[in-house]
Amino acid sequence: MLDLIIIGAGPAGITAAVYAARKKMDFLLISGDIGGQTNWSGEVQNYTGYQFISGPELAAKFEEHMRKFNIAVKEGESAKELKKAGNKVVLKTDKAEYEARTVIIASGKKSKELGVPGEKEFKNKGLTYCATCDGPLFAGKDVAVIGGGNSALDAAIQLIKIARQVSIININPALSADPVMQEQVRDRAAILNDSRVEAILGDQFVNGIKLRQGAEEKTIAVQGIFVEIGLVPNSEFTKDIDKNETGEIKVNCRNETNLAGVFAAGDVTDVPEKQIIIAAGEGSKAALSAFRYLARHKF
Ligand SMILES: Cc1cc2nc3c(=O)[nH]c(=O)nc-3n(C[C@H](O)[C@H](O)[C@H](O)COP(=O)(O)OP(=O)(O)OC[C@H]3O[C@@H](n4cnc5c(N)ncnc54)[C@H](O)[C@@H]3O)c2cc1C
Fold it and tell me: What is the mean pLDDT of residues 70-83?
């Protein structure tokens, strides 16, 4: 039985792993990928110590730091069910079953889907959820970003440098992204406020979007669509854990959940503000809490 399992290798999980390694805990890190959402961010300008660094570069720095320790990492593995059995935690993944005295859930968030006709059909055929990953495929093309918040504008700012024309399709009357980001897209992208996506159009690949703007229905021709309408927590494998109405895991200031020995950190939790530096800080706190829990309990 392990001391600890960390689920997720975004900023929260990687930082938890670094702290756990320094405490010489016997643990495993299980994650779909390494870096998490940091890989999707074009420009990071608010991680202390780096005035400017790209998201993938920062993710690589995190990984490099983590790999300095001899950490057992199960990459490409997905948590499916987490349960308490007596004083241990049992975790089933898509590949194996593990037991540990403590667990840190740092599984972050994933993109919300539009839920309109054509979305599933054209996923990865012109429709994507990651501008950093797929933006370069649309060089010289006309693209649309769906959304009006920080993630949408982060995508639009990246795409303005690559695509021929960028349209921002925002369901609300005005953009809600940080003013500094709004300034960067003003005059460089077509902003369609009050616009609801009705369907994704195409034949083999995306060729347009059907929109409703008030009473008016219109179609715009695009070859690429970037859906950036928000995120949902990756918490569906944690049925016995208390969550808020949006599915975020409820934690206290020591990152404890309602299950003894189960801690959570980062974007998957109800901690306000979802940022890299906050997730990293929460990851370190969760690891220290797990360490203290082990010291206090007999197994
Ligand atoms: C486009 C974009 C731009 C951003 N820009 C900035 C910025 O400039 N500055 C800033 O501070 N923040 C930014 N953010 C927010 C920041 O990236 C997140 O707050 C941060 O990454 C959260 O870290 P996390 O470790 O909690 O979760 P995540 O980064 O979401 O990582 C979660 C990890 O868990 C893994 N995982 C998920 N489900 C499972 C499962 N079932 N089993 C196993 N593993 C699983 C994933 O593979 C991933 O490795 C941005 C976010 C986006 C989307």
Answer: 97
